[in-house]
Amino acid sequence: MRSSTLIPKPNHFDYHKCLQVLGDNDFECLHFKENGTIVKALSKGGHPFAFRISEENEGLKLDLLNGRSNYLAVAIFYVREWFDMDRDLKPFYGLLNENPKLSFLLEHFEGLRLMGIPDLFEALCWSILGQQINLSFAAKLKRRLVENYGERLEVEGKIHYLFPRPEALAPLDPEALRPLQISQRKAEYLIGISRLFLEGKISKQHLEGIGDAEAVQETLLKIRGIGLWTANYVMMKSLLLPNAIPYGDSGLNSALYRLELTNKRPTKEEVDAIFEPFDGWKSYLTRYLWRSLSLNT
Fold first, then answer.
1. Is residue 204 pLDDT above 80, yes or no?
2. Of 248, 254, 235, 287, whose CA–CA distance to 115 is shortest?
3. pLDDT tier at 28, thresholds 50, 70, 90
4. CATH class of 4-86
5. Is 23 exposed, middle or buried (0-12, 13-18, 19+ CB in 10 A)?
6. Rounded to an integer, what is the distance from CA 74 to the centroid of its chain?
7. Fewer CB in 10 Å around end: N or C, the chain?
8. Cα three-residue angle 144-239-173, rounded to 5 degrees
């Protein structure tokens, strides 16, 4: 049974600017973009299903492409979190307007949302794959991992993939991932984290329940394979915490350098000084600084 609904758009929401940052590489495999629409697969109770998002009037139209009509609520919850639709950006834009060196970000990117990764396991695995390599190669690794160990669903003549679940990776020996060009160390990290999820030692619900961002960071840093960059990336992209800064991120450093805000390799203290006026919006400032790299200078 096909079901659809319209999700009202909040103020300061630009669907097409959000769409532009979804899969800026040729190796994206977890959603499919075409003519202003997005098709994505999710799972409910072990049953995969797909939905399509498009813009219609004052909202996002969400159409189920297969599965039961009650899957619609799962898709709505996911999309609202994915596009960070429940956050009022007006205070952030006020801070940008007050900053002479950064106010141009509002002119170019008003309406752009954080664009998160709601699945904590996916966010952790993606951030581990991306450690110390360029984005393009990291995306290749993710695609190989997904195609070999993720579920697949055929809808409307196209194959859609779901990110592998912990139970698919946990039983593996690290050598099983080496043919995918995933390093021995990263394979160990991925499998180790998969086992922690299966054992109930880490979950999104647990991290969200901690409340204090510093305590969340410390909890993540205790996990093998997670350093300061990875912890803050996950806190920003999956937990949607407002003050997460992925220290040492090459893209962030490049943006700060291009804007003449710092040296090419700023220290943590230098980054903190730049971000200090944006308390409560440091994650969003990171998102917009990343996007500034798309501008010609």
1. yes
2. 287
3. confident
4. alpha beta
5. middle
6. 18
7. C
8. 35
